[in-house]
Amino acid sequence: MLQGSSVFGYERPLLIRVSFSTCVLATVCLPLLGLITCVLISSTFHFEDSTGTHCQVPNYLPSISASISLSPECHIWRFCIGLHSAPRFLLAFTYFKFYRTRFASKFPESSLCSLTCLNLTFSILENLSLLLLTYVSSSETFFVHKEGFLLFIVSSIIHMMITCRLWKAIKKYSLNPEDAKSHHWKVRFLFFNVSCCVFAGFFYWKHNMYCESGSYTFFALFEYLVVFSNMAFHLTAVWDFKTREVMVISSSEDKDF
Description:
Layout: E1 3-7, E2 10-19, H1 20-45, H2 47-51, H3 64-67, H4 73-104, H5 113-135, H6 142-173, H7 177-210, H8 215-235, H9 237-240, E3 245-249
Antiparallel strand pairs: 1-2, 2-3
Helix pairs in contact: 1-4, 1-8, 4-5, 5-6, 6-7, 7-8
Main location: Golgi
Transmembrane segments: 20-42, 117-136, 148-167, 187-205, 217-239
Protein name: Acyltransferase PGAP2
């Protein structure tokens, strides 16, 4: 339904109006459902190809890289990630503006304003590296895919750490219980994510060093948990912008001649 909306003093028609929570949920569900679909298809129809490794030992779960490099799985994953990337950039800049507004008027926490720029930088790097490892599969150029994955892990962890620091300051001054809950779960998802990264790295090293049966399966399992905890961390934006809305407004203007 079109509605009139006053923007910068002009009456413009409102084309789309969606709650920010709905936008966040849809953005997170795209990669979540895409990943689950790819893993299920790989496990059902391409089990040998997706679970095979150079060690030639039994493996029972496909890694994420393997499950998104086959067809049609790669097309499903690329569609979901490509579609979700634009809202991710929008969310990054929304958080940047939100932080700058909150900390600009809070002394002595005004020093945290510099962290907001770093937070935006690593949020953008996280999204770009995800696009890189998505559109350059491990079966095409393994080195580029591997570096993209490492960049994604590092940038996402740093982004989450900075975000938790910023929300610690926000919780200090806020009387809103939603802010305290958001910080509470952000910290827990961060620790869970880092723990899963450590376990995934350990089993990956163990698999390459000793070629033990089951090591790569545990690596794949913890790799899933790394990605799921990352999604859960971003899902906390539902609490942060609970009352906000995303609006698309026509740019056309009637001019008097």
